[in-house]
# Entry
Amino acid sequence: MIIATKLHIPRSRSSLVVRSRLTRRLHEGLDRTLTLISAPAGYGKTTLLGEWVMTLENPVAWVSLDQGDNDRTRFWAHTIAALKQAYPSFDQQDVLRHAAEDPSGVSLIAALINGLHRISHTMVLVWDDFHHIEETSILQGVTYLLERLPLHVHLYLASRNSPALPLSRLRAENRLISLEASDLRFVPDETTEFFAKCGGIQLSNEDVATVQKKTEGWAVAMRLAVLSMHEHTDPVSLIRKMAGTERDISDYFFDEVLARQSATMQQFLLYTSILDRMKGELCQAVTGIAESHAYLQQLDKESLFLVALDEWREWYRYHHLFRQFLTAQLKMREPRQWQTLHMTAGKWLEENGYPHEAVDHYLAAADYEHALSLIEEMTPELMTNEWTTLCKWLNAIPDTLLFARPMMLLTKLASQYLSGHVEAATDGYWQAVRRLEEDTDPLPPEEAETLQAGLAFLAAFRTFLDRDFEYAVQFSHEYVEKHPEGDFFIEFGSDEDGYHPVWDIYVSDDSLRLAEQVLTSLLSIWSETRNVYFVAHLYIDLGKMQYERNRLVEAEKLMRQAYDIGRLHDHRILATIAALWLARIATVQGDEATSKHILRELTQLTSKTANSRLSGKIASFRAMLGRMHREEKPVRQWLRKSRLRFRDEIPVSMIKEYDLLASILAEQGKFEEAAALAERLLFMARETGRQSDQIRLLVRKGRLLSLQGKVAECMDVLEEALALAWPEGYIRTFVDEGAAFGQLLDQYIQLRQKQHRRPSHKVPLSYVKRLRRLIPQVERKAGTLHEATVVVLTAREQSVLRLMETGMSNKEIALKLNVSLATVKTHINNIYGKLQSKNRLQALERARTLQLF
# Structure
């Protein structure tokens, strides 16, 4: 849920002192990565930033943070919304889809960085009140962002303390501007101007010195002094009475300000201090004062520590220090009102469509029944991705209440685990188990059975996410035995499109042998339950395994079952994933008509829904097929729409798309870019332990080495891929590479047979020969070269061809041969014509086939 007022840049109505020495420092931040304003409350951090951004020509993305933003999803959602609001060309949806596709959050930040790169002009992002952010995963994400932030993007942080970010490194690299309390203190000239402009008070040099000594240039103390002086005949004597800590000084002056108000206004201030943000109607409900809206306007007009949260001055908040003072006074003067006021606020917020804020007030009032009922209603929405918020709320509710509502206790344990509090989830699990065993306060039989089944489900779910698949089978069996319907948490982890990234953990990515064993068991357990979405994911995973083993009939049957579930339940993502696999199977079986029919149907489906995730999957699939069939149009369309670049940050959820990009770059003759990208992808695959990705990327690396003429290195990498693949029975990863890859296998087989190569990994030659037999020879369609065709190249064309093989660019070839770039392009076009090829990769492959090297 995006709160629009958090994206508003706070602005003051009163005339302010122009602090040129500070705004100059802020302007210097436009040449740095990070500008950090770090000082305690009341030093004018927000005011300074708010006034500075008004001087900029470019728009600014602003987020006012609070304690609730320690939820990782909420933090980044508000950040992305602020960027979209300030910079309409920023592709918000392309970034947000990674929140679902990669629950770790890393892919989202990688996509965010790529999105920022695609906007060329200066961008400024402000995070105000950053001290509220304590969640480790968010701080890690911000660090990742800072390390890779584009040069034209500048981050400004206002915080009461120094955040846990790599500040020393940024400072050493001259990428940090830092303003601290000592910088923000008012100097004598600014103090003189402040009292004159804000209070109409002319201070002598002696008075200024007194103010400086007593307030130490602390902005909020000076502002309070100005407000208080109007009521005193000797205002400077008031300054001289100041003593003690900053808190003592602020309380002294706040007391002065409060005492000047009417009894009704004092009650209004005290009662509304419980609100994080407020508007007239809410204040009226809490205080019972009919003129609440007029009171807010009066406070705003008098600049009485009220901050407007929107341009229409409908929503407000108190200055943080003033609110702290008021709540302390409320607890001291009317302690019994605290709970009543929070309950009243909660009720109004719930009835007027602000359920998140209502829950916070119910919890503050210890009204756990109301809070729990509202949380229960919101749980399906929160289970989409706001696990941290759900965890925080349920942690605040006594376990005795949750134990009486087993599904909410189970939800708490799931939220703890998914928000990173693994030890707390483990402890809570065993406490629930012990309580059931001890039976000292027994639950009704039906609820006890629900809790027992739910604990088994959570164990199955956790072991599945932890990729401990054998235990996942064991606990799944226990769960379904206790609860045959199997319908607990069917919707959890699904986004607005019904996508379930939480189940997108493919056993076949780790081990085909394990997949065959585990998936068959899981399907036999779950197939009769109501959790059809999980069953469909299992069908897809088992289908992937069968496809890789080249069992195409079995793979087609499984994908068809997943597709039918997706269509029957209007689950577009599941139906699309399964349909794309069906199209792929049809293609490799030579049934082009079926493949094209499936793609046409999918294109019509996505055109009606305008779903970028679905259309992206279809476009990348079309590009993959286009590359296999040497069709340039779908490849060009995908490159243009995807806007992927080899220098991009790579979201883990997009490894396959960037692998496709590496292949296309190689075919375009951009070998260095392709090789650099493939190496990064291979590193990521190894880091994440995805064996299937590792094998495929090793194949990619081997082909690139071959194109660069590095035969020995190519054979080493190829053998490494084969060694990983052979024990698991991988086939299609190699066979789908086509005839060009078959030639590499021919080379490997010949080297082994002639004993010119001693294998460094155990790879049976019979396995390699089987792969080679399954790869078709080059098709002899009209317009392609017969292997017996005689091609005559000139001496210069032969030289150019050999240099192309080394991976040189056109410009490098021109320099090497001491000819113009235009001459080189003419020779290359002649070579393409004689070899009937469209690009470098085709030309080099056909040249090898015809033994022109």
Remarks:
- The two ends are 63 Å apart (CA to CA).
- The longest strand covers residues 153-159.
